[in-house]
Amino acid sequence: MATWVERGLILVIVGCLLPAILVESRVRHYKFNVVLKNQTRLCSTKPIVTVNGKYPGPTIVAREDDTVLVKVVNHVQYNLSIHWHGIRQIRTGWSDGPAYITQCPIQPGQAYTYNFTLTGQRGTLFYHAHILWLRATLHGAIVILPKLGVPYPFPKPHKENVLVLGEWWKSDVEAVINEALKSGLAPNVSDAHTINGHTRPVQNCNSQELFNLHVKPGKNYMLRIINAALNEELFFKIADHHLTVVEVDATYVKPFKTDTIVISPGQTTNVILETNKKAGKYLVVVSPFMDAPIPVDNTTGLANIRYATTGLTALTTTLTAPPPINATEVANNFTDSLKALNSKDYPAKVPQQVDHSLFFAVGLGVNPCKTCVNGSRVVASINNVTFVMPTISLLQAHYSNISGVFTADFPANPPTPFNYTGNQTIANPGTSTGTRVYRLPYNATVQLVLQDTAMITPENHPFHLHGFNFFVVGRGVGNYNPKKDPKKFNLVNPVERNTIGVPSGGWTAIRFRADNPGIWFMHCHLEIHTTWGLKMAFLVDNGKGPNESLITPPKDFPKC
Ligand SMILES: *[C@@H]1O[C@H](CO)[C@@H](O)[C@H](O)[C@H]1NC(C)=O
Ligand SMILES: *[C@@H]1O[C@H](CO)[C@@H](O)[C@H](O)[C@H]1NC(C)=O
Ligand SMILES: *[C@@H]1O[C@H](CO)[C@@H](O)[C@H](O)[C@H]1NC(C)=O
Ligand SMILES: *[C@@H]1O[C@H](CO)[C@@H](O)[C@H](O)[C@H]1NC(C)=O
Ligand SMILES: *[C@@H]1O[C@H](CO)[C@@H](O)[C@H](O)[C@H]1NC(C)=O
Ligand SMILES: *[C@@H]1O[C@H](CO)[C@@H](O)[C@H](O)[C@H]1NC(C)=O
Ligand SMILES: *[C@@H]1O[C@H](CO)[C@@H](O)[C@H](O)[C@H]1NC(C)=O
Ligand SMILES: *[C@@H]1O[C@H](CO)[C@@H](O)[C@H](O)[C@H]1NC(C)=O
Ligand SMILES: *[C@@H]1O[C@H](CO)[C@@H](O)[C@H](O)[C@H]1NC(C)=O
Ligand SMILES: *[C@@H]1O[C@H](CO)[C@@H](O)[C@H](O)[C@H]1NC(C)=O
Ligand SMILES: *[C@@H]1O[C@H](CO)[C@@H](O)[C@H](O)[C@H]1NC(C)=O
Ligand SMILES: *[C@@H]1O[C@H](CO)[C@@H](O)[C@H](O)[C@H]1NC(C)=O
Ligand SMILES: [Cu+2]
């Protein structure tokens, strides 16, 4: 089991005339033994890669300003690394986790202690393996509580619960992706959606029960919902109940009510559930959102919200159906409702000036492959660059000035503009390959327009940026219009997050300030797209002095 131990207790005097305020800033220690564990789902048993034998893994609980130390010990046969998804890692890129980007993997039998401080963030995030497809089963919640004595900007919930959404394959997940890489085709879709590790029930076998969330009537519950699925954006809905959205990706939002939330892989959403209905069971449904001709796991994940009653009276279940798989309007309504809280305590610091204006065309492609089924393989690219993983980490190469690992010439624009979302106007769907990064001076402001392409087919791409939060200043369908569209940008209270879905056949514009030195990965959080090369990295230079510079690497930093 994960444990945390109180270490430091720091007294801070706020102002000279104010009474002394006790601020508890602690070091939280966790030990993650990464082990194989046999688990049974959908009537079959297989060994999976887990933290401490748990699926999902243990929840990390800490407060804003705490330092978290996680000693990861690799007891499995795979190379390993863990990413603390959404944690800013200010100056601590060594602890970010993506293999070959910020670190070499923790090899079998080895250990590494991730060491990071939670600065300026509170809410729900999660951790997951960041190598191969191990994150399918190696993931868990990170709960960042506000500083001691600082309330939520909404009524304190009676209780808080974590709901981790995932995908389950009957087969070994590494076998699934290896088979796809060999054939050059898309991998098999998952066999079930999970809610806190539980799949739907299967008849005629000793399957698990649905996950039951026991609640009391007449209370407010905060649900910390995490999409840890590999390849699917999900709808989430509870029968007969509205949900009040209060936070996404560990940033507060302007509260709004909805009956359905949409959540992409890599995103987190906190909602308030009011248990204001009569005693009973209320079905929770989780189903994919896909408005492009892409095969998905169309099964529905199920759980129950169960209002406690006295005795063992049988409860009737109130059912609900998820939105149709192609319910774009439902998804758009949700996305358009998200606004930053932008209060005095939590202002939206949207960059108003842009130093680097980037336009990234993102999508699929096809490259030759002699050994593949069709003589070709599906790939993915950003500005026609299919990213090639280096063999030592980019961060090490950058820090130690090792040449020949990457080039700092990632294109700011597509090499050949085309009608991105039109019918295929490009005869050659081939891409170029390279390990190229985009270099930014410290504190530069960036506007990045992510434009989906219809090159093979349009598709929604949930983009995740490491090391930063960004503001989502605009989105639209079709091709981005650099003259008209910026006029409609929201530069006042756009939602701030770390992962955003680029709509299928459309675009999204984000802004951020490059105030974190290091190498920061950016990629589609559909694992198959990342595998196919939909990834790149930003290199952010050190600023002035040690407070604006990357720290020195830790002693136990893994070597290649
Ligand atoms: C796990 O299950 C496999 C069969 O799928 C079996 O061979 C193995 O012994 C089991 N391992 C453990 C630790 O139970
Ligand atoms: C964690 O990192 C901080 C610097 O960021 C350092 O002072 C501290 O000693 C580190 N802790 C451990 C256990 O390595
Ligand atoms: C993928 O699905 C195909 C068709 O159902 C099946 O034959 C194959 O064994 C599956 N691959 C894996 C790795 O499970
Ligand atoms: C789900 O997908 C399967 C296989 O792709 C298909 O046969 C089935 O009709 C689909 N079910 C629904 C409800 O769309
Ligand atoms: C969604 O898919 C269904 C079934 O294929 C189709 O009838 C419907 O028109 C689609 N809706 C939208 C909004 O595309
Ligand atoms: C989307 O929101 C609009 C305006 O609030 C509403 O009229 C419409 O019914 C909503 N559509 C869906 C599918 O939720
Ligand atoms: C590749 O092969 C698959 C299966 O044989 C086929 O469905 C698909 O259309 C082919 N794709 C291309 C680009 O040739
Ligand atoms: C792009 O393609 C779409 C769909 O084919 C078409 O409607 C649009 O006019 C094209 N745009 C340009 C600039 O060619
Ligand atoms: C794309 O081309 C097809 C066939 O030529 C046509 O039916 C379809 O309307 C076109 N789509 C758009 C968006 O122009
Ligand atoms: C992408 O690069 C490849 C290889 O250089 C080239 O053949 C192709 O035309 C380029 N495509 C686009 C859209 O720029
Ligand atoms: C970053 O830039 C902003 C706006 O130009 C400026 O106000 C701020 O002082 C700069 N921060 C640092 C650390 O240089
Ligand atoms: C594990 O990582 C090391 C260092 O990068 C590498 O040399 C080795 O080949 C990797 N092992 C596997 C099985 O990929
Ligand atoms: Cu993608």
Automatic annotation (TrEMBL):
Catalytic activity: 4 hydroquinone + O2 = 4 benzosemiquinone + 2 H2O
Principal EC category: oxidoreductase
Free-text comment on the cofactor: Binds 4 Cu cations per monomer.
GO MF annotation: an example: copper ion binding
Stored SUPFAM superfamilies: Cupredoxins (SSF49503)
Gene3D superfamilies the record matches: Cupredoxins - blue copper proteins (2.60.40.420)
Cofactor: Cu cation
Localization per record: Secreted, Extracellular space, Apoplast
Limits of the Plastocyanin-like domain: 37-147, 160-308, 409-543
Keywords per UniProt: Apoplast, Copper, Glycoprotein, Lignin degradation, Metal-binding, Oxidoreductase, Repeat, Secreted
GO biological process: lignin catabolic process
One cellular component (GO) term of this entry: apoplast
PROSITE patterns, alphabetized: MULTICOPPER_OXIDASE1, MULTICOPPER_OXIDASE2
Entries under InterPro entries matching the protein: Cu-oxidase-like_N, Cu-oxidase_2nd, Cu-oxidase_C, Cu-oxidase_fam, Cu_oxidase_CS, Cu_oxidase_Cu_BS, Cupredoxin, CuRO_1_LCC
Top-level lineage group: Eukaryota
PANTHER family registered for this protein in UniProt: LACCASE-16, MULTI-COPPER OXIDASE
Reported function: Lignin degradation and detoxification of lignin-derived products.
Matching NCBIfam families: laccase
Protein name: Laccase
Organism: Spinacia oleracea (Spinach)
Chain's gene name: LOC110795088
